[in-house]
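Renewal narrative, Specific Aim 1. Our central claim is that a sequence can be written position by position from structural information alone. The example that follows is taken directly from our test logs and has not been curated for this report. It begins with the structure tokens describing the chain, in the order in which they were read.
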């Protein structure tokens, strides 16, 4: 079923900087940076076939909503984006994204599986994470990575944009090695990591 959705535009960088700075001043422990994602980074994350073909996408840590708008701009009209943001200070800016495909939960990313059940979304096609895994306690990093693996359908994609490579310590045992793409036109420069969840049947065939 096709539905009419409003065209998504990414708010100007200056406006998003203001939102991030305000959020940082209110909750500095939870907001890891005062500079929002650049258009180059947003494109590296959202301009992908897996996003364009997805029925359901989950975004962990949408922040000021730049990546959220980028994902929606590339997603299908009948798709769904579930955004989970721990920092309540981003509430106003995220609520300004008037798109019926977007559902927002203000909570810890560790509750992702619970929210997927609440929204009756089932297994998802793509999970995108801006959460800085380098700042997470080890058990939290492991738990979020495991939840992402459980949430994805076989063949689904996990995308994480990070300053440091700590995320690979948690994901490699679950997904194997990542594909990486460095984005220098961002402050700070980041690396976009991506993994595809292996289909169990395909994995068994490969071992024979």
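The sequence written for that structure reads:
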């Amino acid at each position: 079923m096709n539905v009419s959705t409003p065209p998504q535009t990414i708010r100007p960088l200056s406006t998003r900087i203001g939102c991030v700075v305000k959020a940082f001043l209110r909750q500095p422990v939870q907001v890891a940076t005062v500079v929002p994602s650049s258009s180059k980074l947003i494109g590296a994350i959202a301009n992908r076939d897996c996003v364009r073909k997805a029925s359901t996408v989950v975004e962990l840590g949408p922040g000021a909503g730049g990546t959220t708008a980028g994902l929606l701009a590339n997603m299908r009209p009948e798709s769904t984006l579930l955004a989970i943001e721990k920092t309540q200070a981003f509430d106003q800016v995220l609520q300004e994204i008037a798109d019926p495909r977007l559902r927002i939960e203000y909570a810890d990313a560790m509750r992702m599986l619970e929210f997927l059940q609440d929204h009756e979304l089932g297994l998802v096609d793509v999970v995108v994470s801006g959460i800085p895994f380098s700042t997470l306690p080890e058990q939290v990093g492991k738990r979020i990575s495991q939840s992402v693996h459980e949430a994805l359908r076989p063949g689904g994609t996990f995308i994480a944009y990070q300053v440091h490579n700590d995320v690979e310590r948690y994901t490699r045992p679950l997904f194997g090695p990542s594909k990486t793409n460095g984005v220098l036109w961002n402050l700070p420069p980041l690396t976009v990591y991506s993994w595809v969840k292996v289909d169990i049947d395909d994995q068994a065939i490969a071992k024979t």
